[in-house]
## 1
Amino acid sequence: MDKPIKIAIFDDHKHRRDALKLMISLRKDMQCVGDYENCNNLVYDLRGNIPDVVLMDINMPGIDGIEGVKLLSKYFPDTFIIMQTVFEEDDKIFNALLAGAHGYILKNAPNDKMIEGILEVVNGGAPMTPSIARRVLGHFNKKSDKANKELFNLSNREMDILNLLVKGYSHKMIAAELFIAVNTVNNHIKNIYQKLHVHSVSEAVATAIQKNIV
């Protein structure tokens, strides 16, 4: 990327915000453009310098992180959102993803995993801490309704790719996993978007949750 990735932080703990700012400051390819203790003035705070990525805490006083995601999705749809929390409650995970979050990483994840997640999300991936991914997949497996595969007319290959998108794989990672070209992956994903009537990875994952497709 020619320009640094612009990142905004929402977290009600100052020491956490400071730690994230320090982490970002050590990278030449990243820049912190703001840090905030809640989402009460999110639209006003961000409209002057729209970030590429938001690191969003879930539990904050006032307007919390899930409501913050809804605001970001409405007013800044091109901004990628990575949720951060110390919790692993299923409801919070799924509500955040349904609201439009693109990834979900626990706060106790090492810095290199957070950096990796930021780079992954701007390249089309959906980063998730492994423990989060296992919970999401477990939820899908419990609620799976294979009839929905036929309902949306998804092919076996499209189902394979949708499952990998749910796991947080990027387009390149899917290509490597399935031994196919990236362009082939892109074409399949376009078909998935058309069949699910969505326009992004996060919408596809949200639809998979809501419709129990995978």
## 2
Amino acid sequence: MAKIVTMGEIMLRLSTPNNEKFIQADEFDINYGGGEANVAVSLANYGHDTQFVTAVPANPIGECAVAALRKYNVGTKFISRKGERLGIYYLETGSAMRASNVVYDRAHSSISTAVAADFDFDEIFKDADWFHFTGITPAVSDAAAELTEAACKAAKAHGVTVSVDLNFRKKLWSSEKAQKVMTNLMQYVDVCIGNEEDAEKVLGFKPGNTDVTSGELELAGYVDIFNQMADKFGFKYIISSLRESFSASNNGWSACIMDGKTREFYHSRKYSITPIVDRVGGGDSFAAGLVCGLVDGKDMKAALEFAVAASALKHTIPGDFNLVTRADVDSLAGGDGSGRVQR
């Protein structure tokens, strides 16, 4: 069992029931979630010692968010109580050709005001094996960006492997700001996860003369991008999920990985996911599956297959959290996608 630390914002999610549009809704379904919190829950479900680092307000809503993590055995002892509010996001779940829509209400949230002095990073990273963050956290505020770098420095000082999911969010910051902040943070990163949009918007990499949306040439585009990223940053692994959005209810799902040293490239099995129950948290469940596979000692191909299967299953589960077990994932990765009733 590995000790894995994730750091970011956990939010209150208010989503419309039954695929309603915002204007139709008379009530909202309540969940809690957020990029790194979702990763922590998955890893705890897989049996790892997982600690989530964040700040929440010292009020009942903040404690509800903490309780949501504790319910799934995520460590919460390093969560700071400070600030005025828990961030909120509203989700209008799409269907068929109508896309989902997210509205953020997270300005001045607790994590946006947190500073390194609020956390004992030496204690947090003591005996830790892995640290994971996303590009969402430094996008929340300048203070959160500084906090993220402080955490990365502390992780590296303790010999901890660092992974990032680039996760560009255009509603939080511009591509120009993202590139300035995130390029600096890449010096601490060993394992980088991000699709072609993330690579371009967050790090400025483009796939040469290859169109990554043109069917057979798609994988060549990723090879090109991954080689550029490995050349500049020396990542141990570069990974991307590959989503084919035929509609909001029907996606193709696979992923690819490159060994940054040998430049070996591998494309996973592809899943057809339809109907999609909830795609929010799909990327986080993928990142968690990958981290789990790598800390378990799997080779990069087996780790990627575990991650893709885990994330495919997440699309069938309501809410941000991927509430599947290792056995569930291993069964699907092993070829059992029948969905037959287990008796």
## 3
Amino acid sequence: MKQKKEKHVLNKKIIIAGCLFMLPAFLIIIFTMLIPLIWNVVLSFYEWNGNSDMRFVGIANYINALTERSTVAALKNSVFIGVVSTVVAMVLGILFALCIYRLGKKEGAFCRFIFYSPSMMPMTVIGLLFVFVLAQDNGLLNSALKAVGLTSLQHGWLSERGTVLWTIAIVQGWRFSGTIMMLCYTGMLSIPGSLFESAKLDGAGYIKSVRLIILPLIKPTIKLALSMMLLWSFKTYDMVWTMTKGGPGDLSMTAPIRMITTAFSFNKFGNASAIGIILTIIVSICVIIGRRIAKGETYEY
């Protein structure tokens, strides 16, 4: 009886200690995420320019956002860049992880550093770098195409309607591919080697092992990486602003840039909040759809 009582007291102390350790993180989440989110929701139902009194307008801000052509186009651009960059990052990240998994320790460590290094660079640095690479007249890509006689493939990559969104999405996906690679590679390291030995005895090569062993067993990691990538890819302000500033015209205008312009250039904070809430709903729907697509069986080994 005494031993049970001591165990109960110990468990209670552990729970209290755990709560105390979580308290700072909990307070940070409240003041940096929950309170701003609630304030943003409340503000989206008001008209406010930052100086005068707030005036309740109901869902008028949402109606304006969903009927204004430039705002709808910005939302569509955000969805396009978010989805395409997620696909690019996931495909490249998984391929990089599968390649590195076959290498030795030294070669694998070197390749991990090379593939992961773009993820360590700020988005603005990546954006400025590719502005020079993709410049129409003397950019590295167009110069290389001209040098090998492929002048027909030269484009104004950041100034043409058909290429600007694709270019931004691919660059952003490439930038995040290293993080996806590390997540998938970590999941692969947890797979027991005995499974590969059994597959080898059955005559299965690496490609077949990837299809039947690796990909099914790292499905939870892929699902996590997909959810994280979708959340990251919709935050397109810094990359787009550095590369095109939303141009040419409004061809690459995204919802975050539209929000900031509406709030701080036109002082329409209610409209900007409504755009932010709409974008949050769209991102949540995309994450739910992505997790359902990546849904699969859970294996124990």
